[in-house]
Specification:
Blueprint (H helix, E strand, L loop, with lengths): L1 E6 L2 E7 L5 H19 L7 H6 L6 E2 L2 H16 L9 H6 L6 H5 L20 E3 L4 E3 L12 H17 L3 E5 L2 E5 L7
Antiparallel strand pairs: 1-2, 2-6, 3-5, 4-5, 6-7
Helix pairs in contact: 1-6
Length: 186
């Protein structure tokens, strides 16, 4: 009743209580994770997040999915008093985390020189829920990596449980969420 595949640069696991629902749950989770990638990835030139970063300080109308993911990141920033901060994108890129882990790990440490910059802080991110827009000052780069997988796991578990009418577990590289009724006996 468990299926595994690769998504969001990590392993994705989907487990269902009712084995007849597995194919539907996996299809829904795979489609939802593809949508999260298109919305939230800082590694894709065509992602919505990249469009927000490239808007040079202008508000960008975004999908409800990206809006919810940015709101989740800001909630984490508030809850941790800024220890979790989505405005780390630029310094992560300058430090060398600008591509897949495999490529980053394969760099020659004798020739690669990381750079770091001060993080502007999560309070510079402007979300207008009513207008459906996100704005960051020019030069600010967002990275939702600290929260996006947990956000996606929660969302996928809830959606798959609703669709399949049974208990579902979704694990994304260590972020685990459940939805629906658990199996008999726990």
């Amino acid at each position: 009743m468990t299926s595994s595949f690769t998504a969001l640069g990590t392993s994705a696991v989907v487990a269902v209580v009712d084995s007849t629902a597995r194919a539907d749950a996996v299809a829904l989770v795979a489609a939802e994770l593809a949508a999260v990638d298109r919305a939230c990835s800082r590694f894709r030139d065509d992602s919505e997040l990249t469009h927000v970063v490239c808007a040079r300080g202008c508000a960008v109308r975004v999908s409800p999915l990206l809006l919810a993911a940015v709101e989740a990141a800001l909630a984490a920033a508030r809850a941790t008093d800024g220890l979790v901060d989505a405005t780390v994108g630029r310094t992560l890129r300058l430090a060398g985390y600008d591509t897949t882990f495999r490529v980053v790990a394969g760099r020659d440490p004798r020739t690669f020189r990381p750079r770091f910059e001060r993080v502007p802080g999560w309070r510079v991110v402007d979300v207008d829920v009513a207008a459906g827009t996100v704005r960051v000052p020019d030069g600010v780069e967002l990275d939702l990596g600290a929260t996006a997988k947990a956000f996606a796991a929660d969302r996928c578990a809830r959606l798959a449980a609703d669709l399949c009418g049974c208990g579902v577990l979704v694990a994304l590289g260590g972020d685990i969420a459940v939805g629906g009724e658990p199996p008999s006996g726990g």
